[in-house]
Design goal:
Layout (H helix, E strand, L loop, with lengths): L1 E5 L6 E6 L5 H15 L4 H17 L1 H12 L3 H25 L3 E7 L5 E6 L6 E5 L7 H12 L3 E5 L5 H10 L7 E4 L3 H8 L6 E5 L2 H11 L6 E4 L4 E5 L5 H13 L9 E6 L4 H13 L21 H14 L8
Parallel strand pairs: 5-6, 5-8, 6-7, 8-9, 10-11
Antiparallel strand pairs: 1-2, 3-4
Helix pairs in contact: 2-4, 3-4, 4-5, 9-10
């Protein structure tokens, strides 16, 4: 079986990848061995080597940004911004690692006779962490798991979204110097569930839908490994009576439209104080008109296509429902 990635803008084939389920033993045994070596590297050296590897994102920034745009339709300027944000976030996490992972020395307790009980908390790596990353921010989302996991001495199995396997390849290539402690894999949903039940997986980080989170929780529930779930949001904005509409209107529109609205924190509805409603609506309409829809590789484009085939139909359904419920169509 082969995974085919389609450009959401023009329908062309971006890439094809064979699924890798038959390589489970090879990849997981390799990660277990790599983690045993990586955990022995002193923390300060791990941080230094991860930091050095991050230069690969900057070195290949334009190619990475282009791959993101081709796979999910994000405007190229926004893809470049995500590359920069990925590096900045990773560097920040690394700056916290020496303190966060240092041994915690607690107050001694009285022991028998004149002795004392020394108390320490050591932060030990778990082993192999499976990271299931979403497509909408394909760099920022995995870096939230990959960098802390590697800094703590773990190895990482990165299973990226079926829409963004090329990003998984970039992560594997960039972090290859770290004893092979990060590998990427292309799997179906069913295969992914089977891998999460494997005894060689010691923790799971997932970002995606509520339905996907339930599936991950079910797959890992028999083994009592740590599972971190970051799921979808339902986010409103409130425009108060004393709001600065010159500032708030365009920013609310951006919060709804950035990345074509495909964000867990995207603004889905707006509550406006009745005394500011008409002015806000006028300013919001003007702000929306400034978003340029088109080829996401065009530097002028600020609003790309929806990344999934069913998304436009779903949006049309929401619009029809709103109009039937008494809403007024202002733009679109």
């Amino acid at each position: 079986m082969t995974q085919v990635v389609i450009n959401p803008h023009d329908g062309s084939t971006v890439c094809e990848h064979p699924y890798m389920d038959e390589r489970r033993d090879e990849l997981l045994d390799g990660l277990v061995a790599a983690q045993r070596a990586w955990r022995e590297v002193p923390l300060a050296e791990r941080v230094e080597r991860i930091g050095a590897a991050l230069a690969g994102f900057s070195e290949h920034a334009e190619a990475i940004a282009r791959d993101v745009t081709l796979q999910v339709g994000k405007p190229i300027s926004q893809s470049r911004g995500e590359v920069q944000g990925c590096v900045a976030r990773a560097e920040h996490v690394l700056s916290l690692a020496p303190t966060a992972l240092a041994t915690d020395v607690l107050e001694d307790l009285p022991g028998r006779g004149e002795g004392v009980i020394e108390r320490r908390i050591r932060h030990e790596p778990l082993g192999v962490i499976a990271n299931l990353a979403a497509w909408n921010y394909p760099l920022l989302i995995p870096v939230n798991v990959v960098i802390p996991a590697l800094a703590a001495g773990n190895a990482v199995l990165l299973k990226h979204s079926e829409r963004t396997p090329l990003v998984g390849e970039w992560f594997e290539r960039i972090f290859a110097p770290l004893e092979g402690a990060l590998r990427q894999v292309v799997l179906t949903h069913d295969h992914t569930a089977a891998w999460l039940g494997d005894a060689r997986i010691d923790g799971v980080g997932f970002t995606g839908s509520v339905r996907g989170g339930l599936a991950v929780q079910r797959a890992a529930r028999e083994r009592f490994v740590p599972v971190g779930l970051e799921l979808g949001g339902k986010d409103p904005a409130y425009v108060a009576e004393d709001a600065d509409l010159e500032f708030s209107a365009p920013n609310v529109v951006e919060g709804a439209c950035y990345n074509a609205g495909q964000s867990c924190c995207a603004i889905e509805r707006v509550y406006v104080h009745r005394s500011r409603y008409e002015e806000f609506l006028e300013r919001a309409e003007a702000a929306l008109a400034g978003w340029a829809h088109g080829d996401p590789l065009d530097e002028a484009t600020t609003l790309g296509p929806q990344a999934t085939e069913r998304a436009p139909e779903l949006l049309e359904t929401h619009v029809r429902d709103a109009l039937e419920s008494g809403a007024k169509l202002v733009a679109g």
